[in-house]
Amino acid sequence: MRAPHSSGPVTAGATRAGFWCEFLLVSAEADNTVLVGSFDAYAARDAVRWIRIAVRMLVSVADEAEAEPVHEWLLFGGRPTAAALERGEPFAIALRHKHLHLAWSARPVGFLPLADRTGRTLPPCALEWAQPAALRAALTASQHTHPSARR
Q1: Which strand (E) or helix (H) includes residue 123?
Q2: How far apart are CA 139 and CA 97, in angstroms?
Q3: Hey, where are the domains in the chain?
Q4: Tell me, what's the pLDDT at 38?
Q5: What secondary structure letter does DSSP report for 144?
Q6: In degrees rounded to 5, what are phi and psi of residue 77?
Q7: How confident is the model at residue 96 (pLDDT cuts 50, 70, 90)?
Q8: What's the burial of 85, exposed, middle or buried (CB within 10 Å: 0-12/13-18/19+)?
Q9: For residue 54, what is the enclosing H or E element?
C-alpha cells in the first residue's frame, strides 16, 4: 500500500492544533539531558493534567525552597495554565533534587496528519504513571552519593 502523494507543502489547514508536552531530566554532574517522557495533547487541560500527574508524584523529592511554589501551582495553577496555553503561550515548570533538574513543558503546536499517535484519550500510563527507569536510576544514584561528594 502506498501513501497518497501530495504535490505541495503541508498547509496550516492540514495540521491539527494541539500541545506538545515533555518531561526532561538534566544532570548537572554528568552534563546530560534525558527525555523521560512526552505526550501529545489536543486540549490544553489534557496537557496540564499530564504535567500535574507527574509533578505531583515527584514534588516530594524536590528541594524544599522549590517545592512551595510548585505545591501552590498544583493547587491553583491548573486553570490559568490551561488558559495561557489556549492563548498560544508555552508553559514550563521545574524541580530540583540534589544535582538533578526535572523540567516539564507544554507548548502549542500543529500536528501533521501522519505524525500524531493513535488514540485520542489520555493513555492509561497518565493515570498510573510508573517511574521511568532513567529517572529511577538517577534518583537512586543521587540518594546513595556520599554527602561530601554532593557539595
Answers
A1: none
A2: 8
A3: 16-112+122-142
A4: 93
A5: T
A6: -95, -5
A7: confident
A8: buried
A9: helix 44-58
DSSP 69-117: HHHHHHHH-HHHHHHHHHTT--EEEEEEETTEEEEEEEEEEEE-TTTSP
The C-alpha cell that represents 6 in the structure block: 501530495
Specify the pLDDT at position 11: 64
25 and 33 Cβ atoms separated by less than 8 Å: yes
Q: What's the pLDDT band for 24 if we cut at 50, 70, 90?
A: very high
pLDDT band at residue 9 under the 50/70/90 scheme: low
Residues sharing a CB contact under 8 Å with residue 57, sequence separation 6 or more, in sequence order: 129, 131
pLDDT cut 70: percent of the chain above it: 66
To 5 degrees, how large is the angle CA 130–CA 135–CA 139? 115
CA-closest candidate to residue 111, choices 50, 7, 38, 52: 38
Residue from 113, 122, 127, 132 nearest 41 by CA: 122
- Cα 32 to Cα 17, 45, 99, 116: the distances in Å are 31, 30, 11, 28
